[in-house]
Amino acid sequence: MRVDAGLARLLGLSRTVVATLAEEGRVAVDGQAAGKSDRLTAGSWLEVELPSPDVPTAISAPPEVVAGLAVLYEDDDIVVVDKPVGVAAHPSPGWTGPTVLGGLAALGTRVSTSGSAERKGIVHRLDVGTTGVMVVAKSEHAYTVLKRAFKERTVEKRYHAIVQGHPDPTSGTIDAPIDRHPKHDYRFAVVADGKPSVTHYDTIEAFRAASLLDVHLETGRTHQIRVHFSALRHPCVGDITYGADPTLAKRLHLGRQWLHARQLGFHHPADDRWVEFVSEYPADLERALELLRD
User: Fold this and answer.
1) Phi then psi dihedrals of residue 283, to 5 deg
2) Three-state SS for 265?
3) Is residue 185 annotated as part of the catalytic site, yes or no?
4) CA nearest 146: which of 266, 34, 254, 62?
5) Are 213 and 202 in contact (CB under 8 A)?
């Protein structure tokens, strides 16, 4: 592999960062400075000088009223919300928009202090452009129990998605590993040595140009549904990032992917009883669905 691609894979850095290290003379192969486009070969001695880590800047979620953020359920341990489009789960570098944590703070909801400073109480996430049901831990006990449940895959996560075309078979399983895209830092892709990723789906309704699917996630990789169906050449309608037809998206008045976290079920951390929560389609997805039916 090239130096930039290989080191990015080995160290978990972006190719841009690795290219900068090479340009600064911080990468050597068998004692000789290596450029970003030089090749790595088996048996070579590789040396990389990493810069001193930056002092992390504390990121907080200031209270901010989030339009459309609805609380579906709340008790002493958990709060279940219906996340609107354009809202991140928690603050992150470069994100200046609203967050679920900020919205909950504005509502006076106190969440768990477990987790990193910017992700307190967050046990799973939805993409900014994905709407639907999401649970946040309020107590330390709930955080521990729910994090374990998501890791051990005992949580039932169901999404509804409208994809282009008609998947064949109409019901099936996609078992294909996912990792960061080798060329685009902001995207993910099916790659041979990626993390195991399994998606089950059933067709609910078929239209002339698209299909409404019920999707059950066995794993929870970033962008998993979007990546898997894009790899099958059936991208989520409106998902321009992963190859959707912009003409169809425009006809349906969609400015994002048609993907909705429809249902979430898990054992309640307080008494282990099974609980399930459902989120209705938001207005933009409902309108697009009706246009497909016409």
Assistant:
1) -60, -40
2) strand
3) no
4) 266
5) yes
pLDDT (tens digit, 0 to 9) for every residue of the chain, 294 residues total? 898 988 888 888 888 888 888 888 899 999 889 999 899 988 889 999 987 765 544 556 678 899 999 999 999 999 999 999 999 999 888 888 999 999 999 999 989 887 766 678 999 999 999 999 999 999 999 999 999 999 999 999 999 999 999 999 999 999 999 999 888 778 999 999 999 999 999 999 999 999 999 999 999 899 999 999 999 999 999 999 999 999 999 999 999 999 999 999 999 999 999 999 999 999 999 999 999 998
Given 4, 127, 239, 284, which residue is catalytic? 127
Q: Encode burial over 270-288: b for 16+ CB neighbours within 10 A, e otherwise.
A: eeeeeeebebebbebbeeb
- Name, in order, each residue with C-beta under 8 angstroms of 107's C-beta and a sequence gap of 6 or more: 71
Q: According to DSSP H, which parts of 153-206 are helical?
A: none
Phi, psi of 259 (to 5 degrees): -150, 125
Task: State the distance between the two ends of the chain, measured CA to CA, in whole angstroms.
Answer: 51
Roughly what angle, to the nearest 10 degrees, separates helices 3-11 and 15-23? 120
How much is the pTM?
0.78
Report which residue type is found at 269: P
